[in-house]
Amino acid sequence: MPVLRPSRRLYRLGVPLLAATALYAGAAAPAAADDPGWTAEPAAGTAPRPGGVRPYYYMAGAAGTVLEDRLALANTTDRERTVTLRGADAYNTADGAFAVRPPEPAAAGPSAGAVEGAGAWISFGAGATVTIPPRTRAVVPFTVTVPPASPPGDHPAAVVASEGGHEVGVRVHLRVGGPTLAALTVEDVAVRGRGPAAVVAYTLVNRGNVALAPELAIHAEGLFGEVPGRGARALPVELLPGQRVELTEPWPGAPVADRVRVTLTVTAPGGARAVGAGARWLVPWDLAGWTGLGLLGLGGTAAAALLLVRGRRPGQDPPDDASRGRQPARTPAPEHELTGAPR
After folding, report:
1. How confident is the chain (343 residues) per 10-residue block, as mean pLDDT?
2. Which domains, ranges and CATH numbers included, belong to the chain?
3. CA–CA separation, 320 vs 101, rounded Å?
4. How far apart are CA 86 and CA 102, in angstroms?
5. Which residues contact 172 (CB under 8 A, 6 or more apart)?
6. Is the overall model pTM greater than 0.85, yes or no?
7. Are 136 and 23 spatial neighbours (Cβ–Cβ below 8 Å)?
8. Could you give the 3-state DSSP secondary structure of residue 219?
9. What's phi and psi for 11, nearest 5 deg?
């Protein structure tokens, strides 16, 4: 548990390492190709913890407070290691993963108009670069100085250790005291695919000031009533304050052919609840295509038959010359035979 001491720091900036180093006992196995040869994790606290190892830092304090903790670095190789330490802002990627921002170039400085996150509150002082002898463990203190005007709520950050292009990050859950609000919205609900391959796409936005662990339930209705949806389940994402993520949820119970309306209900601890909906016609286009071609062929056949019948109506005399717009041919006058003797 972090120690809250607003009035002083744990260490003086001129002392890079306060913790003693200890040699590891026994020979270590050769490092794998993707193993940097060193580890970084929160140092064990004074209070006993199950398992003895903290998976992340949890810090809480009022605005203007200076919080203190320690990072443990362990060199598992036979050669000296030089590790650089820094604080970093944390955020959600578009698909909801947890990520940390890269360091700002020293020459450029902070971007114009950029909001300074909690990563800038973390300082290792003169211990930002640590040299660790072979098979040695070093404990490095750091501080988190919360600005006086910091808004209440969660400020996600991380402690990042790097060497030779390899980085290890340890999460920092930092909460500034004051009123908290758990709120979110569900947007851009859409159905993609159909049948067992269907998925529901949607966007979640954290509108509050605390991190959320959301749960999702899907309710669906078709033209003839309710269709199978999805019961409530926890989503594999931690939605950080002010973040927007685009997610998809499998919907194996979706119909193949129907007009469906899906309603998504998302809840999270703290009273957060949001509802979003979307509708779509689910049409099997392969079947619709063959059906359309069949109807088109049938319509063409019927039209041809109709034209043929109209051209040959039973009992109808062939059109005369007058109806055709031609003058009738003149019939020569009959020659009368004269009989009798001339007078």
Report:
1. 39 36 37 75 72 86 97 96 97 94 67 69 95 96 97 97 94 97 97 89 97 96 89 94 96 88 96 96 61 53 63 56 55 48 43
2. 3-104+116-176 (2.60.40.10), 184-282 (2.60.40.10)
3. 93
4. 10
5. 56, 57, 59, 87, 90, 118, 122, 144, 156, 157, 158, 159
6. no
7. yes
8. strand
9. -140, 160
